[in-house]
Amino acid sequence: MSNAPDLAADLRARAGTLGAALPPLLAAADHLASAVTLGDHGRRRAGMGDEFWQYRQAHTGDAARMIDWRRSARGDVQYVREREWQAAQSVSLWVDTSASMRFSGDKMRAPKADRARLLALALSVLLLRGGERVGLTGGLTPPRSGRAQAERLALALSEDGTADFGKPDATGILPHGRVVLISDFLGDLSGVEAAMGAASDRGARGVILQVLDPAEETFPFDGRTIFESMGGSLRFETLRAGDLRARYLARLEERRARLSDLARASGWHLSSHHTGDAAQPALLWLYRALEAAL
Amino acid sequence: MWMLGPLGFTTPLILTALIGLPLLWILLRAVPPAPIRRRFPGVALLLGLKDADSETDRTPLWLLILRALAVAAAILAFAGPVLNPARQEASSDAPLLIVMDAGWADARDWPRRIDQASRVAEAAERAGRPLALLRLTDMPQAPVFQAAQAVTSRLIALQPQPWAPQALADWQAALPEGDFDSYWISDGIDHDGRAALLAALQVRGAVRVFETPRPVLALNPVTFRDGAVQIAAQRLPAGTQTEIEVSARGLDPAGIERELTRATLTFATGATSGETALNLPPELRNRLTRFEIAGSRTAGSVTLSDDSLKRRKVALIGGGADREGLILLSPTHYLRQALAPVAELIDGALIDVLRANPDVIVLTDVARLTQEESNGLVKWVEAGGLLLRFAGPKLAASEVARSDEDPLLPVRLREGGRSLGGAMSWGDPKTLAPFPKDSPFFGLDVPAEVAIRAQVLAQPDPDLSERSIAMLADGTPLVTRKVLGQGQVVLFHVTANAEWSSLPLSGLFVNMLERLTVSTRPALADAADLRGQVFTPEKVLDAFGQLQAPQGLPGIRGEDLAGAMPGPEHPPGLYAGEDRRVALNVIGPETVLRAAVWPTSVPVEGIEGPREQPLKGAFLAGALLLLSADILAALWLSGRLVGRIAALICLVLLLPVPQAQAQTMAPNEARAGTGAGSQGGAQDAFALEATTELRLAYVVTGDSRTDDLSRDGLRGLGQQLYARTTIEPAEPMAVDIERDELAFFPFLYWPVTADQPLPSVAAYQKLNQFLRTGGMILFDTRDAGIAGGTSPEARRLQLIAAALDVPPLQQISGDHVLTRTFYLLQDFPGRQNGPIWVEAPPPDAEAEEGMPFRTLNDGVTPVVIGGNDWAAAWAVDAQGMPSYPVGRGDAGERQREIAYRFGINLIMHVFTGNYKSDQVHVPALLERLGQ
């Protein structure tokens, strides 16, 4: 974390590798045409765009400059060359960079934050390659398209947050845009609820990916232990950690159920990902879920 | 030292720390195990949860006990616990006198006594106390207190004396001035005056006594009674029923001393003495020279037999054998009475008797002999026989030796003889004059009641006076003697019965016969028997019961020798007089061993049995073990002992076990000998290993360092052999002489350690077979031979080699074949450079004209004995680098090279025998072939 540009370059390179394995993400065109800006995204209908769509006979009202003279010269009928209507979607990402994401249950495993960033950026690369506009919530990195945006994202993602637990920032979400929330969701869920509410208010929908360390999923502790949150703000002492396992797991399950309820209520997609597993399935899921949401 | 039962503590003050244990208990109980701090984001989910119970809030009881035990063990360890501690003397800076009996009885465990004395001396050195050392077997002289160091250096060379402490009263007077403490290393026997000397020592200061529990065994002089050799032995202390073996040794027909027979002697329970009888044919009995208790190596367990067991064959020929008469008038009656208990009597005709080759022939009043008898007698006398003749009426009446000297009579006789003190005579019966100085009877008392009434008279020839060995008071010869060839002829001028004189009735007659060695002496020579003779020591015993040549010992007068106890002036041994030998034994016939009883005020050390055993290490190890168990327990309690770490710990705990097994297996060269079932397989494997390749072998001593050194040494030598010669040995093998077959090896290296066990009888058989069939053993005492055979290793070697079939040895000569089997060598160094011993060459070996070497073609020396620590000079480590330094610098490396060369010569000698010896004949052989 000490050398942000280096890390950003590294992150980008790794994300690029991951993203290279997938076909370009072609986001499905949303029916809300008015809300979207034109982009190089075919909408399967004639409209403004660069790609050829069809030739049609010129009717009355077509400006003379619209006639495709090359095609018309082959016959007696004048043709107009129509182009495919292309539109770009804007996707806003929120990646939790708080202290709790820096946890790793094993020296051999990278912290959760690493995995979260990687997935976020890989997804960004895919989307950008598909011509979408990708940005971060919070307004500092608004959605843009183009390869340069990936670098900007990587730079922005490599910053560490200071809070103990992350709280989604709903600002900067474009109306009818798409939202991706990546976090461990171990903090207060009211923030998440609020953010989802704000997004839904603007007609934005999205996906939620919960990234957890296996240790958080299994609670392999025993004996007299003082648990502290990563930032040190929370503290809990137990004499027999092993006894707490069942109750902890129940609480974790309860939390996931609540998240699931939230997601279902507002039509979002929810999934869990463990840092102990491979990243590819998670990216695939994100890709599919986002494709469905688009 | 503070004692708690058999347990002593060197620093008992530390034990007060045990008071702190309850405090520790309370502390530990109050403080629960320290918590682990964990960073864990899931803590948010835990908030508000409650522990089911709070049991681990306090240290569990069993952990508490574990820790308390660990701390207690550590405290005990640092207090220096010693099991059965040697009693410590009260610290004192008074001078210390070490009193050693140093007699024959000390020889049974002399090294231990020297150890003990050294220990005491070192303690005194540390305490800065002046020290003096005295041997009670020495001549009394005031010991001088000097710096302890001076005494310590003397101790090592100190040897026991082959006699018992004497003149303890004189020692009492010779004690130094002033107060001093004493340390008495006693042999456990109550010598005369011991109590008084102890009292005198106690007056000067504290006395401590050291004794060893090893029993004292002593052999009384053997006697001949009831037709059998009577053997009696004593022991101290009286214990349970024990059997000892008494070995009777003597010269075999080839003149080599060996054990002739063996008797078993039983001590009954509680008895201090035992007896047995040995029935031997006279031929064998006459050969006996020495009895010794097998396995006991002290001068007291050896008794030398002098002539007392020898029985001469005496033929009695009576002149009037066919005469009817009263038995008391028989001319041979008195002789028979005197000789029957001490000699083998032969009866028969003279011609028959001569064939039996008796030692003595007695002719009583025999005048006429046939020509054949006469010639036979002369020949027999000239060959060393003793012809003893007695006069009588027949001889007096005969014409024998009247005009010229008869060869079988010492003097010419005058006709008729004379009669004294009879009814028709003026004179009284004559008594004997004292014996002249050159007479064999010199020193015998002449009883006044011996009277001579009649005798034959000698012609006054010029040599009469020198032939007379006993005379009457008026100077008339009574006994005359003539040397004839190697034998002699003795004539008593009186009858052998009481007819002419009362001489045969007196004790003098028996003594005179003894002096003439007609009869052998009774078991104990008394002063009268020996008076007037000078005895020179022929062989003397050392304290360990070994016969040594006497060095610089003067002769001793017979009367002093009779009844003498061995002492500095006359050590025990065999004393030779003019015609007899007298044994002076450590244990006289009257010697009775009494156990020394010490008053309760004198602390007695050394007999407690169990040795001092420091327990500090054990306690520390225990504490450490408990503490490591505590670590595991604490880890487990606090939840840190998770699977992988636990597995790791288990692995670490288990790891040393197989390693240790591997180590114990290593010296056996991976010989699978774990089960009885695989015994045969193991032997086969051993045989295969030994025979598929040439292997040098070394004898396992039981000391792993020595064994490793032997292996490294032979490996180093093997590498040199491989590099330089056509002998290409594989890795050396360890050989256990008790278990392994030796026939596979041409060569054994045998380093001798001081505490090596003696081989069993079966092992000796194998070794002797090995030596007889051409094997060679290199004995290495590793002491450089500087101690002259008195180092503990050399002693051990003497013990080990005693039962080996080893020929006479000689220090290696310059022309021995070992000097040229491969390299030309004159020295045979290892790390040291001392002399080595090999089989002695035959005495008639001579160098041929123009040849540099003597002709020595037969026999490879079966043993080479030296102390040069060859293995250390040869030893190389795994990298092939020398393991031990030899000498210094280049000279040392040169010495190592010579050591290798010696090894190569030796192995070459083993394999090629005397080939190089034959080489010197090559010119001669070629010359012959040319013709």
Task: Note down, in words, how this protein is organized.
The complex is a heterodimer of chains A (294) and B (931). In chain A, helix 5 (189-201) links the parallel strand 6 and strand 7 (205-212). Chain A folds into two domains: 4-31 and 89-293, Rossmann fold, CATH 3.40.50; 38-87, no CATH class. Chain A is built from eight helices and ten strands. Chain A has helices at 4-20, 69-72, 112-129, 147-157, 189-201, 214-218, 245-266, 279-293, and strands at residues 37-46, 52-57, 79-88, 90-95, 133-136, 178-183, 205-212, 225-228, 235-238, 269-274. In chain A, the strands form three sheets. Chain A has a five-stranded parallel beta sheet, with helices on both faces. In chain A, strands 1-3-2 form a three-stranded antiparallel beta sheet. Chain A is of the alpha/beta class and 294 residues long. Mean pLDDT of chain A is 77; it is low at 21-41. By secondary structure, chain B is α/β, with parallel strands linked by helices. Chain B has six domains: 1-33 and 57-82 and 614-654, no CATH class; 96-211 and 596-611; 216-309, Immunoglobulin-like, CATH 2.60.40; 312-515, 3-Layer(aba) Sandwich (Rossmann fold); 527-584, no CATH class; 693-919, Rossmann fold, CATH 3.40.50. In chain B, the strands form nine sheets. Chain B has a seven-stranded mixed beta sheet, sandwiched between helices. Chain B has a five-stranded parallel beta sheet with strand order 6-5-7-8-31. In chain B, strands 26, 27, 28, 29 and 30 form a five-stranded antiparallel beta sheet that branches. In chain B, strand 5, helix 4 and strand 6 (131-135) form a beta-alpha-beta unit. Chain B is elongated, with a radius of gyration of 40 Å. The termini of chain B are far apart. The model of chain B is unreliable at 658-677 (pLDDT under 50). The A-B interface holds A 99-101, 103, 165, 184, 186-187, 215-216, 219-230, 234-244, 247-248, 251-252, 255 and B 32-47, 49, 51-57, 637-640, 642. Strand 8 of chain A pairs parallel with strand 3 (36-39) of chain B.
